[in-house]
Inverse folding.
């Protein structure tokens, strides 16, 4: 039996990982030599598409995923709207460990580039060690200073040795906690290499960095960064089950079952990491002594898994799931009137919302920082900035203490400055504001007195303010100024109806042309100390006329933000969802799950 097994396996080990020639394809958009499209992409730009990036394993190249036998699989993927197929090749360093610059760091750069061109996060499909390369890459830093994990919507791994390879460990004389029958099978594989008189893939890796790193539960594997809790990782494993059977006339014998994985990677190793997904084990029929060669020609074999229709279906499901989800991340807060504090959240696509901070104030446009005004005590108000990634708080500046009124901070769209009130309001007019540099704390006073609760336009050239100190017939309480606070103009009465108190402003478009404001309800509310940025019966209006602009959502909106591309993100009143509109105010996507119908305040939106 061993000779059959050894000889058959030797053939597979010598030839099984040879890659198919790579089809030559031209690409209008480039992310370097290592990342290329699988085939001509019909001249369609990556912008607003969904890149699916395939990565190969050890002693292989991009040919693993460009195999001609996968053409129907590629075609099924391309039938998904916007899907673009790319491969990453690290064959020049495929015996190096993932930390080599041409492997993990280069893959992180490719993800950063492709997601940047597409303007959204991508799907990664990884074979074998490609999954470990992905695990390393997702923890690297993208061009925007955030983690690469934000640029990945979903990961599918096929035969990835998350806990190492028992086969490589046995070859190096390392003890592995496996059963005696399985240990016998692994030793038979190594004997096969000597039988054919030439080295097999396993032997070629023994003295290489990757060979040492892939020992079962090695130090290098333990040092890999953890997967984020909200990044879906779908592991797929092959499981070939061997059962010794003999039927000779009246003699019948059946030995114990031996599960040998794919057999380079055990099922336990290939499914060791899964996040927000079920493990997918592809089992193949039992193999007996007289059909032992089927172990190595099996569709559950390490290099053959990709050709299985059910494996391809699993990859298609992952891509379809992402394609059907809204792209990007919404940053919002949820106020708790019992504590006068808010929880701050990030919701990416269809994933559950993540709580990222607690307190008061505003999130930066990229969700990395929180600015708050500390008004405790009778002294000056203190502008505090918290780095949410590092948990570090910094006092930037002191200013007017309105005890939570008027002086709410506002970030510039580039996240480099914060508007902060320096002097208090008086009966004659609003106090003076300053633009505080986040990096240094340096404060520069605006040229003119303006109002309260400022809101920047996405282009940073205009600011909307609440100004209820000097009400006049025919105009609202919404004031639009230049970035320095000058050249102020009031928006005419909203919908032609005067309301001297409650026209809050929640968002302003580039150029100051449109604003999301509270509808006029004269006499229904006391003026009080101003409405803040909250809108409950919100309308988008033309700031030159005060006339409402219809939106494709039912009823009024509770809040929103204008985007730099002219789009708008809103929460319809009474709806547990956020709706993303394009520049023509057509529905582009809807975020659902983990959102309340009331109490949410949208702070920003990122395409990743």
């Amino acid at each position: 039996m061993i000779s059959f097994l050894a000889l058959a396996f030797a053939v597979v080990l010598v030839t099984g990982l040879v890659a198919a020639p790579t089809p030559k394809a031209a690409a209008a958009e480039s992310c370097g030599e290592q990342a290329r499209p699988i085939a001509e992409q019909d001249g369609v730009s990556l912008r607003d598409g969904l890149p699916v990036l395939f990565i190969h394993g050890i002693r292989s190249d991009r040919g693993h995923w460009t195999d001609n036998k996968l053409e129907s699989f590629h075609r099924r993927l391309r039938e998904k709207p916007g899907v673009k197929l790319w491969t990453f090749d690290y064959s020049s360093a495929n015996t190096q460990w993932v930390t080599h610059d041409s492997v993990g760091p280069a893959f992180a750069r490719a993800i950063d580039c492709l997601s940047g061109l597409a303007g959204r996060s991508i799907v990664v499909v990884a074979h074998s060690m490609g999954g470990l390369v992905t695990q390393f890459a997702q923890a690297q830093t993208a061009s925007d200073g955030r983690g690469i994990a934000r640029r990945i919507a979903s990961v599918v791994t096929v035969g990835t040795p998350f806990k190492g390879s028992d086969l490589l460990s046995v070859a190096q004389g390392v003890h592995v906690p496996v059963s005696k029958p399985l240990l016998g099978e692994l030793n038979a594989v190594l004997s096969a290499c000597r039988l054919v008189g030439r080295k097999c893939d396993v032997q070629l890796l023994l003295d290489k960095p990757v060979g040492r790193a892939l020992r079962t539960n090695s130090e290098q594997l333990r040092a890999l960064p953890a997967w984020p809790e909200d990044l879906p990782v779908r592991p797929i494993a092959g499981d070939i089950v061997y059962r010794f059977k003999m039927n000779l006339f009246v003699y019948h014998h059946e030995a114990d079952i031996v599960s040998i994985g794919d057999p380079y990677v055990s099922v336990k190793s290939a499914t060791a990491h899964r996040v927000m997904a079920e493990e997918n084990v592809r089992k193949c029929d039992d193999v007996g002594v007289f059909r032992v060669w089927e172990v190595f020609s099996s569709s559950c074999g390490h290099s053959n898994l990709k050709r299985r229709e059910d494996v391809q279906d699993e990859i298609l499901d992952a891509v379809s799931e992402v394609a059907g989800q809204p792209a990007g991340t919404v940053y919002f807060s949820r106020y708790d009137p019992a504590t006068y504090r808010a929880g701050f959240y990030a919701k990416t696509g269809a994933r559950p919302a993540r709580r990222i901070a607690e307190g008061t104030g505003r999130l930066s446009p990229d969700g990395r920082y929180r600015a708050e005004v500390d008004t405790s005590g009778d002294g000056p108000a203190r502008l505090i900035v918290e780095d949410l990634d590092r948990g570090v708080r910094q006092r930037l500046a002191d200013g007017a203490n309105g005890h939570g009124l008027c002086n709410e901070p506002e970030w510039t769209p580039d996240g480099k400055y914060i508007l902060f009130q320096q002097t208090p309001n008086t009966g004659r007019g609003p106090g003076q504001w300053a633009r505080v540099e986040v990096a240094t704390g340096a404060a520069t006073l605006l040229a003119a007195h303006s109002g309260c609760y400022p809101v920047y336009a996405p282009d940073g050239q205009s600011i909307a303010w609440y100004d209820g100190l000097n009400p006049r017939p025919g105009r609202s309480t919404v004031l639009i100024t230049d970035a320095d606070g000058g050249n102020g103009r009031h928006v005419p009465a909203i919908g032609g109806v005067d309301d001297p108190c409650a026209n809050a402003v929640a968002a302003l478009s580039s150029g100051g042309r449109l604003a999301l404001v509270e509808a006029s309800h004269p006499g229904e509310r006391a003026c009080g100390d101003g409405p803040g940025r909250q809108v409950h019966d919100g309308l988008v209006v033309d700031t030159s006329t005060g006339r409402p602009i219809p939106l494709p959502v039912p009823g009024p909106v509770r809040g929103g933000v204008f985007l730099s591309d002219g789009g708008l993100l809103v929460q319809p009143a009474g709806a547990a969802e956020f709706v993303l509109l394009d520049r023509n105010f057509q529905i582009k996507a809807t975020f659902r799950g983990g959102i309340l119908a009331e109490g949410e305040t949208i702070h920003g939106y990122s395409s990743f």
